[in-house]
Amino acid sequence: MTNQQNWPALKSEDSVTGYIYKTLDYSKFTLGENNRDIRSANVKSKKESIKKFGILNPIVVNERFEVREGNHRLLAMKELEKEGYSPLPPIFYIVKTTNESEMIAMNNTNFNWLNKDYVNHFANRNFIEYKKIIKLSEKHNIDVSDIINVLNGAYVNSQKRKNDFKYGKFALSSSQWSQFESFLVHFQELTPYITQNRGTKIALFGIFTHKKYNQKTMFNKIFNEYSKTNRPVNLAGTTDQCKVKWLNVYNHKAQSNKIDYFISSNGKCELIY
Fold this sequence. Notes:
Helix content is 49%, strand content 8%. By secondary structure, it is α/β, with parallel strands linked by helices. The strands form three sheets. A four-stranded mixed sheet has the order 1-4-2-3. Strands 5-6 form a two-stranded parallel ribbon.
């Protein structure tokens, strides 16, 4: 029995709210479908942590022993057992059945989901808008994270829409999808002639949607700048720094279609429409 002499004393307002169990019967658990998609790297990391520290966090299951949080830990324990380690009794506690939104919220609270986790999660469950992101990524050889960063900067710019994105409610109109794919093609044409970072795409898309923006004009000016030195045009920096750089190239000696802008008090580059 565990020595409880050094345990902190419970106060009058403290109470027992549930029980934590343990078992060696791995077969009683099934992986939760609405969890984050399994990543082998995460399982490997969990295995190393378990070997070093043991089982520290309980697995969360519902009344049917479907894992609601802890898929990676459970798989890590199963793999360790197969590799000859002493049986590791998973510790777990039971919660009421959770729906998909609650499941995502639980996972995001405990282990921050990346935006691409949400995309993969919903695309694998046949959510059409999220499948479009995957398709664009494969078609244009652009990382899913880059696509989401640009979309977040342009179309998912309110807290409500960001929450919608996390709960499977993300949607764009057909014209927005068409506009965005045109942008990806345009950006790929410019890529050989520029130095870029994460902010470069986001900044250009903010300009691309301006009614005065002309793709041919931008391409010609970027190519002319590149031709002067045979070196990529430096368009890296923060998103606002990148936006200013793009605009300065675009507006240089502009006879028409000049896009005016100003720098706000908080350092944001704001376009004038």
